[in-house]
Amino acid sequence: MEGSKKIRLGISIGDLNGIGCEVALKTFEDSRMLDFCTPIVFASNKTVSHQKQTLNLELSFNGVHNAAKAIEGKINVVNVWKEAPRTEFGKATEEGGKYAIKSLRAAVAALKNNEIDVLVTAPINKNNIQAEDFKFPGHTDYLAKELNGESLMFMVTDELRVGLLTDHIAVKDVANAITTKLIREKVLTMTESLQKDFGVRRPKIAMLGINPHSGDNGTIGEEDDKIMKPVIETLFNEGYLVYGPYSADSFFGSNNHGNFDAILAAYHDQGLIPFKTLSFGKGVNFTAGLSKVRTSPDHGTAYEIAGKGEADESSFKEAVFAAIRIFRNRKEHKELTKNPLKKQRVKRSA
Predict the structure, then answer these.
(1) DSSP letter string over 22-79?
(2) pLDDT over 70 at 270, yes or no
(3) Cis peptide preceding 245, ω within 30 of 0
Protein backbone atom coordinates (compact mmCIF):
# COMPACT_ATOMS: atom_id res chain seq x y z
CA MET A 1 0.00 0.00 0.00
CA GLU A 2 2.87 2.40 0.75
CA GLY A 3 3.87 2.41 -2.92
CA SER A 4 0.35 3.12 -4.13
CA LYS A 5 0.01 6.49 -5.86
CA LYS A 6 -3.75 6.76 -5.64
CA ILE A 7 -5.82 6.94 -2.49
CA ARG A 8 -7.55 3.63 -1.79
CA LEU A 9 -11.18 4.51 -1.27
CA GLY A 10 -13.38 1.96 0.47
CA ILE A 11 -17.15 1.90 -0.09
CA SER A 12 -19.68 0.22 2.18
CA ILE A 13 -22.67 -0.68 0.06
CA GLY A 14 -25.52 0.34 2.37
CA ASP A 15 -29.04 -1.07 2.16
CA LEU A 16 -29.26 -3.31 -0.90
CA ASN A 17 -32.89 -2.32 -1.38
CA GLY A 18 -32.08 1.40 -1.52
CA ILE A 19 -30.08 3.55 -3.94
CA GLY A 20 -26.65 3.14 -2.28
CA CYS A 21 -25.20 0.65 -4.73
CA GLU A 22 -26.69 2.58 -7.64
CA VAL A 23 -25.10 5.94 -6.76
CA ALA A 24 -21.75 4.27 -5.99
CA LEU A 25 -21.64 2.42 -9.30
CA LYS A 26 -22.90 5.44 -11.27
CA THR A 27 -20.10 7.51 -9.74
CA PHE A 28 -17.45 5.17 -11.10
CA GLU A 29 -19.27 4.42 -14.34
CA ASP A 30 -17.47 7.62 -15.31
CA SER A 31 -13.99 6.14 -15.86
CA ARG A 32 -12.37 9.54 -15.24
CA MET A 33 -13.07 9.03 -11.54
CA LEU A 34 -10.46 6.28 -11.54
CA ASP A 35 -7.82 8.96 -12.07
CA PHE A 36 -8.49 10.27 -8.55
CA CYS A 37 -8.63 7.09 -6.48
CA THR A 38 -8.83 3.31 -6.44
CA PRO A 39 -12.43 2.37 -5.47
CA ILE A 40 -12.90 -0.76 -3.34
CA VAL A 41 -16.52 -1.86 -2.84
CA PHE A 42 -17.29 -4.16 0.09
CA ALA A 43 -20.05 -6.51 -1.11
CA SER A 44 -19.77 -9.45 -3.55
CA ASN A 45 -19.41 -10.08 -7.27
CA LYS A 46 -22.92 -11.54 -7.39
CA THR A 47 -24.51 -8.57 -5.64
CA VAL A 48 -22.74 -5.95 -7.76
CA SER A 49 -23.48 -7.87 -10.97
CA HIS A 50 -27.17 -8.06 -10.08
CA GLN A 51 -27.36 -4.33 -9.35
CA LYS A 52 -25.41 -3.50 -12.51
CA GLN A 53 -27.72 -5.57 -14.72
CA THR A 54 -30.92 -4.34 -13.07
CA LEU A 55 -29.87 -0.70 -13.49
CA ASN A 56 -28.39 -1.14 -17.00
CA LEU A 57 -25.02 0.27 -16.00
CA GLU A 58 -22.02 0.05 -18.31
CA LEU A 59 -18.98 -0.82 -16.22
CA SER A 60 -16.65 -3.67 -15.40
CA PHE A 61 -15.10 -4.57 -12.06
CA ASN A 62 -12.38 -6.69 -10.55
CA GLY A 63 -13.31 -9.19 -7.81
CA VAL A 64 -10.80 -9.62 -4.96
CA HIS A 65 -10.69 -11.55 -1.68
CA ASN A 66 -9.39 -8.60 0.33
CA ALA A 67 -8.74 -4.90 -0.11
CA ALA A 68 -4.98 -5.34 -0.15
CA LYS A 69 -5.33 -7.10 -3.53
CA ALA A 70 -7.14 -4.18 -5.18
CA ILE A 71 -5.81 -3.05 -8.56
CA GLU A 72 -5.36 0.59 -9.54
CA GLY A 73 -7.32 1.77 -12.55
CA LYS A 74 -10.19 -0.63 -11.85
CA ILE A 75 -13.33 -0.81 -9.75
CA ASN A 76 -12.57 -3.48 -7.16
CA VAL A 77 -15.16 -5.56 -5.31
CA VAL A 78 -14.17 -7.35 -2.10
CA ASN A 79 -16.19 -10.55 -1.75
CA VAL A 80 -17.48 -10.14 1.80
CA TRP A 81 -20.12 -12.85 1.20
CA LYS A 82 -20.45 -15.66 -1.35
CA GLU A 83 -24.22 -16.09 -1.38
CA ALA A 84 -26.65 -13.99 -3.42
CA PRO A 85 -28.88 -12.11 -0.95
CA ARG A 86 -32.43 -11.37 -2.05
CA THR A 87 -32.98 -7.84 -3.29
CA GLU A 88 -36.40 -6.23 -2.86
CA PHE A 89 -36.00 -2.67 -4.07
CA GLY A 90 -37.95 -0.12 -2.10
CA LYS A 91 -38.56 -2.33 0.92
CA ALA A 92 -36.99 -2.16 4.38
CA THR A 93 -36.21 -5.84 4.99
CA GLU A 94 -34.27 -7.66 7.68
CA GLU A 95 -31.98 -9.10 5.01
CA GLY A 96 -31.25 -5.66 3.59
CA GLY A 97 -30.10 -4.48 7.01
CA LYS A 98 -28.09 -7.62 7.65
CA TYR A 99 -25.94 -7.22 4.52
CA ALA A 100 -25.57 -3.48 5.00
CA ILE A 101 -23.91 -4.20 8.35
CA LYS A 102 -21.76 -7.00 6.90
CA SER A 103 -20.44 -4.56 4.31
CA LEU A 104 -19.87 -1.82 6.90
CA ARG A 105 -18.05 -4.11 9.35
CA ALA A 106 -15.73 -5.41 6.61
CA ALA A 107 -15.00 -1.90 5.34
CA VAL A 108 -14.25 -0.54 8.82
CA ALA A 109 -11.96 -3.50 9.55
CA ALA A 110 -10.04 -2.75 6.35
CA LEU A 111 -9.86 0.93 7.33
CA LYS A 112 -8.47 0.08 10.76
CA ASN A 113 -5.92 -2.27 9.17
CA ASN A 114 -4.80 0.44 6.71
CA GLU A 115 -5.89 -1.66 3.73
CA ILE A 116 -7.94 1.34 2.61
CA ASP A 117 -7.17 5.01 3.23
CA VAL A 118 -10.67 6.48 3.49
CA LEU A 119 -14.25 5.24 3.70
CA VAL A 120 -17.39 6.43 1.91
CA THR A 121 -20.57 4.90 3.29
CA ALA A 122 -23.72 4.43 1.21
CA PRO A 123 -27.05 5.03 3.04
CA ILE A 124 -28.45 2.55 5.54
CA ASN A 125 -31.87 2.22 7.15
CA LYS A 126 -31.60 2.95 10.88
CA ASN A 127 -34.38 0.48 11.71
CA ASN A 128 -33.41 -2.69 9.87
CA ILE A 129 -29.72 -2.52 10.90
CA GLN A 130 -30.60 -3.15 14.55
CA ALA A 131 -29.40 -6.54 15.81
CA GLU A 132 -28.14 -8.19 18.99
CA ASP A 133 -24.57 -7.27 18.10
CA PHE A 134 -25.36 -3.93 16.45
CA LYS A 135 -27.35 -1.45 18.51
CA PHE A 136 -26.27 1.88 17.05
CA PRO A 137 -28.62 4.59 15.73
CA GLY A 138 -26.43 5.05 12.66
CA HIS A 139 -22.99 5.18 11.10
CA THR A 140 -21.63 8.00 13.27
CA ASP A 141 -22.04 6.26 16.63
CA TYR A 142 -20.63 2.97 15.35
CA LEU A 143 -17.61 4.66 13.77
CA ALA A 144 -16.96 6.68 16.93
CA LYS A 145 -16.69 3.41 18.86
CA GLU A 146 -14.48 1.69 16.28
CA LEU A 147 -12.20 4.58 15.29
CA ASN A 148 -11.66 6.39 18.59
CA GLY A 149 -12.32 10.05 19.17
CA GLU A 150 -15.02 12.61 19.89
CA SER A 151 -17.15 12.36 16.76
CA LEU A 152 -18.91 15.33 15.19
CA MET A 153 -21.56 15.06 12.49
CA PHE A 154 -20.30 17.67 10.04
CA MET A 155 -22.27 18.52 6.88
CA VAL A 156 -20.02 20.22 4.34
CA THR A 157 -19.87 21.79 0.90
CA ASP A 158 -17.24 24.14 -0.54
CA GLU A 159 -19.22 27.14 0.75
CA LEU A 160 -21.01 25.88 3.85
CA ARG A 161 -20.13 23.74 6.89
CA VAL A 162 -22.70 22.84 9.55
CA GLY A 163 -21.95 20.67 12.58
CA LEU A 164 -24.37 19.30 15.18
CA LEU A 165 -24.24 19.47 18.97
CA THR A 166 -26.77 16.63 19.15
CA ASP A 167 -27.62 14.44 16.19
CA HIS A 168 -29.92 11.42 16.25
CA ILE A 169 -31.91 12.03 19.41
CA ALA A 170 -35.56 12.99 19.95
CA VAL A 171 -36.35 16.71 20.01
CA LYS A 172 -37.83 16.34 23.51
CA ASP A 173 -34.41 15.23 24.79
CA VAL A 174 -32.31 17.95 23.14
CA ALA A 175 -32.30 20.57 25.92
CA ASN A 176 -31.30 18.05 28.61
CA ALA A 177 -28.56 16.60 26.40
CA ILE A 178 -26.82 19.94 25.84
CA THR A 179 -24.33 20.50 28.65
CA THR A 180 -21.28 22.68 29.22
CA LYS A 181 -19.10 19.63 28.65
CA LEU A 182 -20.81 18.69 25.38
CA ILE A 183 -20.60 22.21 23.95
CA ARG A 184 -16.92 22.45 24.81
CA GLU A 185 -16.14 19.03 23.28
CA LYS A 186 -17.95 19.80 20.03
CA VAL A 187 -16.38 23.25 19.63
CA LEU A 188 -12.89 21.85 20.18
CA THR A 189 -13.54 18.97 17.77
CA MET A 190 -14.91 21.36 15.13
CA THR A 191 -11.97 23.74 15.57
CA GLU A 192 -9.42 20.95 15.20
CA SER A 193 -11.22 19.57 12.15
CA LEU A 194 -11.36 22.96 10.45
CA GLN A 195 -7.63 23.35 10.97
CA LYS A 196 -6.53 19.80 10.14
CA ASP A 197 -9.13 18.70 7.58
CA PHE A 198 -9.99 21.97 5.82
CA GLY A 199 -6.84 24.08 6.21
CA VAL A 200 -8.47 26.94 8.16
CA ARG A 201 -5.78 28.46 10.39
CA ARG A 202 -8.01 30.49 12.74
CA PRO A 203 -11.52 29.02 12.53
CA LYS A 204 -14.43 31.33 13.19
CA ILE A 205 -17.47 29.44 14.51
CA ALA A 206 -21.09 30.53 15.00
CA MET A 207 -23.35 28.74 17.48
CA LEU A 208 -27.12 28.60 17.01
CA GLY A 209 -29.35 28.97 20.04
CA ILE A 210 -31.36 26.12 21.53
CA ASN A 211 -34.65 27.99 21.89
CA PRO A 212 -36.52 30.32 19.50
CA HIS A 213 -34.76 33.72 19.45
CA SER A 214 -32.03 32.11 21.63
CA GLY A 215 -34.44 32.21 24.57
CA ASP A 216 -35.23 35.93 24.23
CA ASN A 217 -33.44 36.75 27.51
CA GLY A 218 -35.10 33.86 29.32
CA THR A 219 -38.64 34.53 28.13
CA ILE A 220 -38.64 31.38 25.92
CA GLY A 221 -36.41 29.11 27.96
CA GLU A 222 -33.28 29.66 30.04
CA GLU A 223 -30.89 27.15 28.44
CA ASP A 224 -29.25 29.66 26.12
CA ASP A 225 -28.52 32.15 28.94
CA LYS A 226 -27.54 29.62 31.58
CA ILE A 227 -25.64 27.04 29.51
CA MET A 228 -24.64 28.32 26.07
CA LYS A 229 -23.61 31.90 26.72
CA PRO A 230 -21.23 31.17 29.63
CA VAL A 231 -19.42 28.42 27.68
CA ILE A 232 -19.09 30.59 24.58
CA GLU A 233 -17.67 33.42 26.69
CA THR A 234 -15.17 31.08 28.38
CA LEU A 235 -14.04 29.59 25.07
CA PHE A 236 -13.69 33.05 23.51
CA ASN A 237 -11.54 34.19 26.45
CA GLU A 238 -9.36 31.13 25.87
CA GLY A 239 -8.70 32.28 22.31
CA TYR A 240 -11.32 30.36 20.34
CA LEU A 241 -13.26 32.47 17.84
CA VAL A 242 -16.72 31.27 18.90
CA TYR A 243 -19.74 33.55 18.64
CA GLY A 244 -23.43 33.36 19.51
CA PRO A 245 -25.85 32.00 20.31
CA TYR A 246 -27.62 33.28 17.21
CA SER A 247 -31.33 33.04 16.56
CA ALA A 248 -31.62 30.14 14.12
CA ASP A 249 -34.66 31.38 12.22
CA SER A 250 -32.93 34.42 10.71
CA PHE A 251 -29.31 33.29 10.69
CA PHE A 252 -29.24 31.68 7.24
CA GLY A 253 -31.86 33.89 5.61
CA SER A 254 -29.75 36.98 6.39
CA ASN A 255 -26.66 35.28 4.88
CA ASN A 256 -24.89 35.62 8.23
CA HIS A 257 -23.50 32.11 7.71
CA GLY A 258 -21.15 33.57 5.10
CA ASN A 259 -19.25 35.37 7.87
CA PHE A 260 -18.13 32.12 9.53
CA ASP A 261 -16.01 29.09 8.69
CA ALA A 262 -18.58 26.77 10.27
CA ILE A 263 -21.86 26.76 12.18
CA LEU A 264 -22.64 24.56 15.18
CA ALA A 265 -26.38 23.82 15.36
CA ALA A 266 -28.07 22.68 18.55
CA TYR A 267 -29.98 19.77 17.03
CA HIS A 268 -30.46 17.74 13.85
CA ASP A 269 -33.21 19.57 11.93
CA GLN A 270 -32.06 23.02 13.02
CA GLY A 271 -28.83 22.44 11.11
CA LEU A 272 -29.80 20.04 8.34
CA ILE A 273 -32.90 21.77 7.00
CA PRO A 274 -31.02 24.96 6.01
CA PHE A 275 -27.96 22.96 4.95
CA LYS A 276 -29.87 20.70 2.57
CA THR A 277 -31.93 23.61 1.28
CA LEU A 278 -28.80 25.57 0.40
CA SER A 279 -26.63 22.69 -0.81
CA PHE A 280 -29.10 21.36 -3.43
CA GLY A 281 -28.00 17.73 -3.08
CA LYS A 282 -24.29 18.55 -3.34
CA GLY A 283 -23.69 18.20 0.38
CA VAL A 284 -21.50 15.67 2.16
CA ASN A 285 -21.82 14.14 5.61
CA PHE A 286 -18.35 13.98 7.18
CA THR A 287 -17.65 12.38 10.55
CA ALA A 288 -15.07 14.73 12.04
CA GLY A 289 -12.95 14.00 15.11
CA LEU A 290 -12.03 10.39 14.30
CA SER A 291 -8.68 8.78 13.56
CA LYS A 292 -9.76 7.97 9.99
CA VAL A 293 -11.69 9.78 7.25
CA ARG A 294 -15.31 8.84 6.61
CA THR A 295 -17.78 10.65 4.39
CA SER A 296 -21.21 9.86 2.96
CA PRO A 297 -23.81 11.48 0.70
CA ASP A 298 -26.34 13.79 2.35
CA HIS A 299 -29.37 11.63 1.46
CA GLY A 300 -30.94 8.40 2.68
CA THR A 301 -31.94 5.10 1.08
CA ALA A 302 -34.60 6.77 -1.12
CA TYR A 303 -36.68 3.59 -1.32
CA GLU A 304 -39.28 5.38 -3.46
CA ILE A 305 -36.93 5.45 -6.49
CA ALA A 306 -34.72 2.42 -5.71
CA GLY A 307 -34.17 0.04 -8.60
CA LYS A 308 -35.55 2.48 -11.18
CA GLY A 309 -32.24 3.94 -12.32
CA GLU A 310 -33.38 7.44 -11.36
CA ALA A 311 -30.98 8.16 -8.48
CA ASP A 312 -28.67 11.18 -8.78
CA GLU A 313 -25.09 10.31 -7.85
CA SER A 314 -23.97 13.95 -7.37
CA SER A 315 -23.82 13.83 -3.57
CA PHE A 316 -22.02 10.48 -3.54
CA LYS A 317 -19.46 11.83 -6.02
CA GLU A 318 -18.98 14.88 -3.80
CA ALA A 319 -18.47 12.52 -0.84
CA VAL A 320 -15.69 10.79 -2.78
CA PHE A 321 -13.96 14.08 -3.60
CA ALA A 322 -14.38 15.32 -0.02
CA ALA A 323 -12.79 12.16 1.41
CA ILE A 324 -9.82 12.54 -0.94
CA ARG A 325 -9.35 16.24 -0.10
CA ILE A 326 -9.62 15.70 3.65
CA PHE A 327 -7.16 12.79 3.56
CA ARG A 328 -4.63 14.95 1.68
CA ASN A 329 -5.23 17.93 3.97
CA ARG A 330 -4.59 15.77 7.03
CA LYS A 331 -1.40 14.45 5.52
CA GLU A 332 -0.19 17.95 4.68
CA HIS A 333 -1.15 19.26 8.13
CA LYS A 334 0.79 16.43 9.76
CA GLU A 335 3.87 17.27 7.71
CA LEU A 336 3.62 21.00 8.45
CA THR A 337 3.21 20.51 12.19
CA LYS A 338 5.64 17.63 12.62
CA ASN A 339 8.59 19.94 13.28
CA PRO A 340 7.46 23.60 13.25
CA LEU A 341 10.90 25.00 14.17
CA LYS A 342 12.56 23.17 11.30
CA LYS A 343 9.91 24.43 8.88
CA GLN A 344 10.46 28.02 10.04
CA ARG A 345 14.22 27.79 9.55
CA VAL A 346 13.80 26.41 6.06
CA LYS A 347 11.31 29.16 5.19
CA ARG A 348 13.62 31.96 6.39
CA SER A 349 16.60 30.63 4.49
CA ALA A 350 14.64 30.29 1.23
Answers:
(1) HHHHHHHHSGGGGGTEEEEEEE-HHHHHHHHHHTT-----EEESSGGG--TTS-EEEE
(2) yes
(3) yes
